[in-house]
Design goal:
Largest sheet: 5 strands, mixed
Radius of gyration: 32 Å
Distance between the termini: 42 Å
Number of strands: 27
Helix content: 25-40%
CATH topology of the largest domain: D-amino Acid Aminotransferase, Chain A, domain 1
CATH class of the largest domain: Alpha Beta
Structural class: alpha+beta
CATH architecture of the largest domain: 2-Layer Sandwich
Strand content: 15-25%
Strand order of the largest sheet: 17-27-26-18-25
Number of domains: 3
Shape: globular
C-alpha cells in the first residue's frame, strides 16, 4: 500500500508535520484543564479534556503554514477571516445581529479619529506659539525698557501667549469629548460582545496565513499544533486510521500528493523583495560556471529535540554557540571558464569541424575559481548577468568572498556565519544582535570546512576548523591584511562525552529525555536561556547551541534553540520583521539572484 504521507523535494524537517503518539501529560499550575507534554522533544500545551496519553495525533511544527483547505474544512480560521471557513454562512448569520453595532462603532471611531486629529493640531499650535513667545521673551530682556520697539514686541508676546492659551484650552475641551466618545465606543462594543463570543465558538485561531506560532498559556510556552485524525479525514476522506497508525513517527509535508505544510514567511517588506521582472530576459546571454559535484550547499541542520535518541552516553560531541546572522559559503573549486569567441572562431580545429559539419570543441575550459554563496543562492554562478544583492540590496557574501578566497586551498569550501551590520550601514544583519560590532561593521565565524583529498571531499572536525581559522588570522596579519579583525574563531563550548558532561544522569532510565532537558537549561556550560554575552549594545537572548558528533561518518549538525529566542522570533514575525536568512533561503526563485 502506497504511503499517503510523503516528503516533497523542498521538504525540511524543521518545518514539517509528523504522526505521533501523545506521551505523558503534566498538569499546568493554575489551570484545571491545561497540561503540557513533549512531542518529538518539543513542549506543547494541550487540553486534558480533548487529548489523552496514547492518543494518535498529527503534530505541526512551529512557524509553519498549513494547507488553507484543511483549515477551511475544519473551521480553524479566526473570526477576522471567518469567510475562509466552511461554516462562513452559519457564522455570518450569528454576526448579523452585531452588524448595526459594528457600523455605529465604526462611525464613532471615525469621529473620534477626527477629534483626535484636531486636538493634536491645536496642541501642537499652542506649543509652537509658546516656544516662539519664550524665544521673544529672551530677546525682550535684552532691549531697552519703554522704547516703541520694546512695547511692540511685548504686545506681540502677549498676543502669542493668549492665542496659545486659547488653543490649549480648546484642545483640552476636545480631550474631554474624545475621552467620553472612546468610553461610549467601548460600551457599545461590549453590548455586542456576547454575539461575537458566540461566533468565535464556531471559528478557530489561525490568521489568514495559516501560521503555526508559539504561544504562552498560563505562563507555559507551547510550540506547535496538534490535531486529530478526524480533522485530517475532513481534509482527505481517502486517508484511513490504518494509514495513520502505520506512519507513527514519520515526518511529512505532503498528503496524497497535495502540499500540506510549508515554512511560514511573513509578507516581505518592499526593500527586501527580489526583482522578478523580466526573468526570462535575464537568462539570455549568461554562462553557467558551475560543475556538478564540485560545490555543495550546507546541509540542513536538524533539531536536536527530534534526534536526541540518536545519541549514546559514550558519544564524543562538540558543542559550539549558534550565531544569529546569515550563512555564507566560499569555495575554491573547479568551475567552467568561457573561451573567448575569437579563439573559438579562428581555431583551425574548429574550422575543420565546421567544414565537415561536425560538433566543435568545448567553448569553455575547466580551472579552479571562486564560488560565493549565501545559504541557498550562488552569487557568482553566472557570467554576463547582473548581480542582485538580495536583502537590503547589499551583497555581503561577495564582500567576504573577495576577502577569504586568496587564502583558500584548491578544492576547499568553507562555511560561515556573517553577523553584525550591513557594511557601512546602520541596518543590522539580524535586528538587535550586534555581537559587539559597531554600526556599519560585521564579522564572520567559520563553522565548517571541506577539502578535496584523495578524490574525496573530507569533512573537517570542529577543532580543525578552529585551528584553520586561527591560522587564517595569522596569515592575514603577516600580509598586513586588516580584515583579520573581521574573523571570529568558532566558540567551542564543550568537547567530550555526554556521560562525562552530565555524570549525575542515570544512563539506564529515560537518559535521552533527561539529557535533552539538561541541555535546554544548561546555563553553566552553554548559557542557555541567558543573555548573549557577545552582544554588548543590546540585551538579547542567546540563540542556542550546535551539537556535532566527533568522528561521525555521517556528517550532521544538530541545533538546539533557546525558548527565549523562539518566543522573540515569533514576536518579530508577528510584526513582519523578516529574517534575512528567510529572505535568502525561501525566495520563490533563489538562483535568479
Amino acid at each position: 500500500m502506497a504511503n499517503v504521507f510523503t516528503k516533497s523535494e523542498e521538504f525540511k524537517s524543521e518545518y514539517s508535520c509528523a504522526v505521533v503518539k501523545v506521551g505523558e501529560l503534566t498538569p499546568i499550575e493554575g489551570s484545571d484543564f491545561l497540561a503540557k507534554t513533549l512531542v518529538l522533544g518539543t513542549q506543547i500545551v494541550v487540553r486534558r479534556d480533548f487529548i489523552k496519553p496514547g492518543d494518535t495525533m498529527i503534530y505541526c511544527a512551529n512557524e509553519t503554514q498549513l494547507n488553507e483547505r484543511f483549515l477551511s474544512v475544519n473551521n480553524l480560521f479566526e473570526i477576522s477571516c471567518r469567510e475562509k471557513n466552511a461554516n462562513a454562512e452559519e457564522v455570518a448569520k450569528i454576526m448579523e445581529e452585531y452588524a448595526p453595532i459594528k457600523a455605529k462603532a465604526d462611525k464613532m471611531r471615525n469621529e473620534a479619529k477626527n477629534i483626535k486629529g484636531v486636538m493634536e493640531s491645536k496642541t501642537n499650535f499652542s506649543n509652537k506659539l509658546t516656544k516662539k513667545a519664550d524665544k521673544l521673551e529672551k530677546k525682550l530682556s535684552e532691549m531697552e525698557l519703554g522704547t516703541a520697539e520694546y512695547e511692540t514686541l511685548k504686545a506681540d508676546i502677549a498676543d502669542k501667549r493668549k492665542s496659545a492659551e486659547k488653543a490649549l484650552s480648546e484642545a483640552m475641551s476636545l480631550t474631554t469629548k474624545y475621552t467620553n466618545l472612546k468610553k461610549d465606543i467601548e460600551d457599545l462594543v461590549n453590548s455586542g460582545k456576547h454575539i461575537v463570543d458566540e461566533a468565535k465558538k464556531h471559528c478557530g485561531f489561525f490568521n489568514k496565513y495559516g501560521r503555526v506560532r508559539c504561544i504562552t498559556l498560563k505562563g507555559t510556552p507551547s510550540f506547535g499544533f496538534l490535531f486529530s485524525p478526524e480533522e485530517l479525514f475532513k481534509f482527505d476522506n481517502t486517508v484511513t486510521m490504518e494509514d495513520i497508525e502505520d506512519c507513527i513517527g514519520q515526518e511529512f509535508d505532503t498528503i496524497n500528493g497535495e502540499l500540506f505544510v510549508k515554512v511560514f514567511i511573513p509578507p516581505m517588506p518592499k526593500e527586501s523583495r527580489r526583482d522578478n521582472a523580466n526573468k526570462a530576459q535575464k537568462k539570455i546571454k549568461r554562462f553557467d560556471r558551475m560543475i556538478d559535484g564540485e560545490f555543495f550547499f550546507h546541509y540542513d541542520t536538524t533539531q536536536l529535540e527530534k534526534t536526541i535518541n540518536q545519541f549514546k552516553p559514550e558519544d564524543v560531541i562538540d558543542v559550539s554557540i549558534k550565531i544569529h546572522g546569515t550563512s555564507s559559503i566560499f569555495a575554491k573549486v573547479k568551475v567552467k571558464k568561457p573561451i573567448h569567441w575569437k579563439t573559438i572562431l579562428f581555431s583551425p580545429w574548429n574550422f575543420a569541424m565546421r567544414l565537415f559539419h561536425l560538433p566543435m570543441v568545448k567553448t569553455y575550459k575547466v580551472e579552479y575559481g571562486p564560488v560565493y554563496s549565501s545559504r541557498t543562492v550562488i552569487k557568482n554562478r553566472y557570467i554576463n548577468s547582473s548581480t542582485n544583492g538580495g536583502y537590503y540590496n547589499a551583497d555581503i557574501w561577495t564582500e567576504y568572498g573577495d576577502i577569504i578566497y586568496p587564502y583558500l586551498d584548491e578544492g576547499m569550501t568553507v562555511y560561515g556565519e556573517i553577523f553584525g551590520y550591513i557594511t557601512e550601514s546602520d541596518k543590522p544583519i539580524q535586528k538587535t544582535y550586534d555581537y559587539g560590532c559597531d554600526k556599519g561593521e560585521n564579522k564572520i565565524m567559520f563553522y565548517r570546512v571541506t577539502k578535496d583529498e584523495d578524490g574525496n571531499k573530507r569533512e573537517w572536525e570542529v577543532q580543525e576548523v578552529f585551528e584553520w581559522t586561527k591560522d587564517l588570522i595569522e596569515r592575514m596579519k603577516a600580509n598586513n591584511d586588516e580584515n583579520w579583525k573581521k574573523i571570529h574563531p568558532i566558540d567551542i563550548l564543550y568537547h567530550g562525552t555526554l556521560e562525562d558532561l552530565y555524570p549525575d544522569i542515570d544512563t539506564e532510565n529515560h537518559w535521552h529525555e533527561n539529557v535533552l532537558e539538561k541541555l535546554k537549561n544548561d546555563k553553566e556550560h552553554f548559557g542557555m536561556e541567558e543573555d548573549e554575552p557577545l552582544c554588548i549594545y543590546h540585551q538579547v537572548p542567546r540563540e542556542g547551541i550546535c551539537v556535532r558528533k566527533y568522528a561521525d561518518p555521517i556528517r550532521e549538525c544538530y541545533k538546539l534553540k533557546t525558548i527565549s529566542f523562539k518566543l522573540g522570533e515569533a514576536i518579530r514575525y508577528d510584526s513582519n520583521d523578516v529574517d534575512i536568512e528567510a529572505v535568502e533561503g525561501y525566495s520563490e526563485d533563489p538562483n535568479e539572484s
